[in-house]
């Protein structure tokens, strides 16, 4: 076979170019010296035109020599810029423009497509960021900022002046979620705790296209949308809308919760109450013993390409359920829920089931680099390696995300139920107060009746005493009458006996005196 001559490196070519330039410069100087010497030796044959031609040729040669020196110096400088230069006080050659260009090209590729090591993306690029951004925009929906409330009604209706964004027009009967930005704090005032204040859920009842008269010629187009509350408002909500700032932002979807939204400690402390702060501080931190298994994610490496299809509760324009496909590549690492999640009729496989099917392999971390080697539910205890280190499952705690729209509606429902219960309690209280007033009136009447009864009782007592005394007198008179009656009966009986005896004697006397027939 024909031997292939190795191609010289850029460093060897650079050194060869430097040596050639120096040799050519030395040769040119020697030629000029020899020319001057030869001219000096031939002075006996000089003529005026010879001297003239000699001066012109020599001057031209010197000029070209100087220009050639400048060109060679320029080339050497550019080579130093392109390939770098090694100075006496440096051990390594400085990075030249060519190396910088190669580094920039590599950095550009990494910025555009991401950085991959061993077939795994270790740092996302613009392409992955754009995909993530598109996913976030799908979740976030359309957004209209710098809206100005033109008027506010007593019932919570708002006429909103919306700058016309191209390609994202508002529609009639469209549901929007409004947020107001607090006014900028004045000197000495504290910064507002919330960046945006939720105003409520509205329905666009009317749309009108207008032109800003204060703008330059041609006027900036804007849309005036009449927002009507889609749900009954409480008095404090109407008051909050009336007192809100002059800068609103509206969304066609309620902003979604995110694990990274409250990742900053200062934001968590400013935006969250103390009762919920600990849960958010623990989010995405290494899992601990006792954490619920449904709130644990483990780090897995996919052994093959895998696509998870998730059916959402939302519907598309045709009325069909909207689905989202999440793709994972062979060798890709990702955080996956430990347990399988059931959403309606579909199941989203967790790390345990995926590993059982041979789709993924659960990653492990060295104790000193991750956590304390805890024992998680469903996994074996950490194993000792060389009696020095322990291996634990790479797991982290994830807080449950909140559906703010459902949460607001639930809070509103509980609030309305509480209002109904409060009204019922107020009605019962009013009824009880009326009953209490009636009871007090009846009590006063009863007390008056008791007083009258007490007086009547005293009178009756006196009358009873008088009646008792009169009854005693009557009893005494009755006894006397009974005694007299008895005496009269005895007297009458005696008189009757006497009358009978006298009647008998009178009869005998009559019989005695009457003549016999």
Rg calculated over all Cα atoms: 58 Å
Number of domains: 4
How many helices?
Answer: 9
Order of helices and strands: HHHEEHEEEEEHEHHEEEEEEHEEEEEH
> What percent strand?
15-25%
Mean pLDDT over all positions: 76
Would you report the number of β strands? 19
The residue fraction in helices comes out at 40-55%
* Main β-sheet description: 6 strands, antiparallel, barrel
Can you tell me the overall shape?
A: rod-shaped
- Poorly predicted regions are 1-16, 366-391
Query: Oligomeric state of the chains?
Result: single chain
> Could you give the distance between the termini?
216 Å
Strand order of the main beta sheet, please? 3-4-7-6-5-8
Class based on secondary structure composition and strand pairing: alpha+beta
Protein model, in words:
The chain is α+β, with helices and mostly antiparallel strands and 517 residues long. It folds into four domains: 10-83; 139-251; 284-397, no CATH class; 404-472. It is 46% helix and 21% strand. The protein has helices at residues 10-41, 48-83, 97-113, 126-140, 235-242, 265-271, 274-282, 351-356, 404-513, and strands at 115-117, 120-123, 143-152, 158-163, 175-180, 197-211, 221-229, 248-251, 296-302, 306-315, 321-328, 333-337, 341-343, 346-348, 360-362, 364-366, 383-385, 389-393, 395-397. The strands form six sheets. A six-stranded antiparallel beta barrel has the order 3-4-7-6-5-8. Strands 9, 12, 15 and 19 form a four-stranded antiparallel sheet that branches. α1 packs antiparallel against α2 (48-83). The longest helix has 110 residues, at 404-513. It is rod-shaped, with a radius of gyration of 58 Å. It starts with 9 loop residues before the first helix and ends with a helix. Residues 1-16 and 366-391 have low confidence and may be disordered.
């Amino acid at each position: 076979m024909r031997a292939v001559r190795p191609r010289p490196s850029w460093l060897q070519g650079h050194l060869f170019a430097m040596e050639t330039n120096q040799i050519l410069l030395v040769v040119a100087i020697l030629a000029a010296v020899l020319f001057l010497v030869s001219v000096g030796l031939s002075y006996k044959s000089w003529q005026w035109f010879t001297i003239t031609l000699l001066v012109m040729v020599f001057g031209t040669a010197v000029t070209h020599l100087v220009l050639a020196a400048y060109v060679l110096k320029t080339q050497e400088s550019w080579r130093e810029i392109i390939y770098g230069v090694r100075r006496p006080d440096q051990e390594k050659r400085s990075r030249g423009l060519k190396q910088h260009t190669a580094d920039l090209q590599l950095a550009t590729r990494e910025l555009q497509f991401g950085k991959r090591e061993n077939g795994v993306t270790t740092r996302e690029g613009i392409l992955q960021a754009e995909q993530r951004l598109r996913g976030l925009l799908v979740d976030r929906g359309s957004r209209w900022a710098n809206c100005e409330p033109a008027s506010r009604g007593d019932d919570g209706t708002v006429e909103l002046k919306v700058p016309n964004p191209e390609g994202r027009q508002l529609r009639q009967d469209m549901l929007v979620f409004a947020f107001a930005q607090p006014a900028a704090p004045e000197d000495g005032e504290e910064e507002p705790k919330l960046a945006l204040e939720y105003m409520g859920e509205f329905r666009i009842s009317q749309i009108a296209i207008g032109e800003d008269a204060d703008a330059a010629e041609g006027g900036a187009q804007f849309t005036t949308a009449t927002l009507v509350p889609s749900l009954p408002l409480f008095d404090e909500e109407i008051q909050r809308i009336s007192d809100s700032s002059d800068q609103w932002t509206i969304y066609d979807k309620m902003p979604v919760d995110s694990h990274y939204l409250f990742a900053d400690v200062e934001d968590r402390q400013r935006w969250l109450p103390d009762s919920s702060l600990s849960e958010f501080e623990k989010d995405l931190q290494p899992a601990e013993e006792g954490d619920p298994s449904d709130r644990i994610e483990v780090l897995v490496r996919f052994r093959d390409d895998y696509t998870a299809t998730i059916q959402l509760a939302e519907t598309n324009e045709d009325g069909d359920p909207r689905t989202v496909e999440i793709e994972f590549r062979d060798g890709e690492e990702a955080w996956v829920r430990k347990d399988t999640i059931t959403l309606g009729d579909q199941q989203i496989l967790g790390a345990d089931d995926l590993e059982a099917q041979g789709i993924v392999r659960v990653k492990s971390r060295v104790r000193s680099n991750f956590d304390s080697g805890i024992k998680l539910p469903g996994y074996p205890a950490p194993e000792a390696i060389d009696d020095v280190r322990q291996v634990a499952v790479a797991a982290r705690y994830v807080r449950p995300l909140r559906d703010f729209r459902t949460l607001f509606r639930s809070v509103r429902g509980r609030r309305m139920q509480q209002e109904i219960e409060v009204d019922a309690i107020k009605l019962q209280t009013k009824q009880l107060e009326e009953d209490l007033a009636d009871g007090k009136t009846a009590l006063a009447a009863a007390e008056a009746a008791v007083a009258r009864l007490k007086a009547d009782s005293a009178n009756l007592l006196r009358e009873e005493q008088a009646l008792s005394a009169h009854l005693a007198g009557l009893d005494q008179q009755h006894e006397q009458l009974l005694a007299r009656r008895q005496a009269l009966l005895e007297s009458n009986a005696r008189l009757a006996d006497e009358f009978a005896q006298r009647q008998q004697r009178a009869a005998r006397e009559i019989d005695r005196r009457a003549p016999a027939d």
